[in-house]
């Protein structure tokens, strides 16, 4: 085949890709549907010109189209890793973890249910063996939710809903292809009725092996990227190689799932690379993969659609009935998940509520596409699969794909309109008016500065300002005097705007490199939670999200438990350092939000809403300061190192800005500027390195600061630091229950607790202890202790406490003072505790 003709055909396909997107927007159809239709038309045209006698002029082009390397291996080894890898890089994994239950249900449970439903339905109405029927079920269970996601975004659907569907799209292919590999093996071996126990026995090897291979490949890739810190093109090249090496390595080396390996590699890179790469390098890497995935996604749709005419060449009239069975079984299986299982999970508070109209849209938007056709093509190419099985697999998969694209895809937007999802709610309409008012105020300020800078004619400026002012006054009055919105909704709108501005401030600080990429990702997730919390729950939802941003998470508690029980201090040290940096960055961002409230919020929503938002912001700042002060008390030296690091990074940013301004003013040449920027980069790389936190050493320093241990010598302090266990608790956690045995004494390293006993309450803060009275009086605990702020407690068991009490006069005085405060009389402590150290 002439290479020039092949290159011409491929280049022409890129022209088709370029034209398909505006055409889809004009026709208001999903982009994937347009690509599939164009591919089918091109494939039909090529076959027509090869078989007709009308003309031979187009035969070379038709032969090139038919002869394109559209084998299944091209789809599975070239295009699929690109699409999966890019999807993982574009995800906010921390937000995905908030909704892991519905994501796994839609991505894994739904695939299994669809496979079984379609498989058994086909086995009842056809002569195919059960293994082949289940294979077809696995092939058609892969959904392509890109169409419904794009429409949800265009109609301002809840961001959480779009994120759930995106998470499904990532794991859906991985689960379906893993199941496909299992049943493909049964079909090739000629097993008529596979045992599910055999399938389940092989499944963990596919999943665990693929996950390990992907994780290992990503770790090596990140290590290499960090070595090539000054060579961005080298880092991009390593990222391009990563998904393919992970895929092939898992498939060929250990017989695991290559798809799972690619997903694991992408997730690992997404989690670790932002903290190891320069921010701009990470941004450029993601932009590169966005372009590669766009091309790969478009090409896989067109090339797969080219195969449809050939896959349908041997269709029979009876096959249409089987296609109908597949359609009904697949839709029924997805409906069971959406309308039965998800509401049940919501009732058990394991999943957020997804309203019925959105569930209908997700059901009708479960389109199938290139992956389904690629898997069907893999079956038809195998010489170990019986011919009749190959024929039916190709026809049923292709027919079902065409139904979803032509019937569901073309009517999806109409269905969404019928459901009323394309109409804004009253609060969204009010939000749009607020956005217009805020935008016009900013425009007026910028236009005024522009007019002043360029010394424009006063008459022209005055007339245009008057005209613009009328429009601005109307927009502000519309935002203020909306009759169809309640006062609490005005507060909600203000909170949404405040959280949105917080997100913009984070992005600006990231661009300035005042905060690191790793911390920016975490506090961006916090800002997203604030927006979603305000939209769904108003003020209470916003406050819940704010409390969560400073609380100790499950991962932190798990690391604390591993440190206490297993002696593994590495994860806890790393998470403590992350928490330190996160709180410092959060405090920096929050202090910039007051101006926004006093400015735009005040002008749009009035004094009452502005004052309320200022109060909520003050509470957030106080909570962050409290949590940060607790860490400072625990790790004073480390806090100083982090603050020095922040100052150094800020100074470097300012220095870089000065050199850039001098270069733009041509005060220095390109050579001098390049040399100066290289020096900046070297110093910045050093400043980016976070100091190491030594928990054991820091605990000794903490114990030394507590007054109750003031009279212990250095050796005793070190022994005590080793004996004390650290416990991190959130506000509201119950530390001691009534009527429980007394086994430990608690010292408050940071935070505060509230004690309730006999109808009375009192509070204790840093440096104070509780739990000692029940031990000394040898009684069950009669009080209840609960934290009122995120706290760090030092826990000492009863035996060590008694020995320490016997030798420390400062501790004895603290115990007596605590007893007197509660009206308890203790006899001589030394007599009650005759043990010697």
From TrEMBL:
GO molecular function, one term: sodium:proton antiporter activity
One biological process term in Gene Ontology: regulation of intracellular pH
Entry-linked PANTHER family: SODIUM/HYDROGEN EXCHANGER (PTHR10110), SODIUM_HYDROGEN EXCHANGER 7 (PTHR10110:SF86)
Subcellular locations according to the entry: Cell membrane
CDD domains hit by this protein: CAP_ED
Principal location class: membrane
Protein name in the entry: Sodium:proton antiporter
GO annotation, cellular component aspect: plasma membrane
InterPro entries, per the entry: Cation/H_exchanger_CPA1, Cation/H_exchanger_TM, cNMP-bd_dom, cNMP-bd_dom_sf, RmlC-like_jellyroll
Topology in the lipid bilayer: Multi-pass membrane protein
Entry keyword set: Cell membrane, Ion transport, Membrane, Sodium, Sodium transport, Transmembrane, Transmembrane helix, Transport
Organism superkingdom: Bacteria
Domain Cyclic nucleotide-binding positions: 708-822
Matches recorded under Pfam families: cNMP_binding (PF00027), Na_H_Exchanger (PF00999)
Transmembrane segments: 6-24, 31-50, 74-93, 100-122, 128-149, 170-191, 203-224, 244-271, 291-308, 320-341, 361-380, 392-421
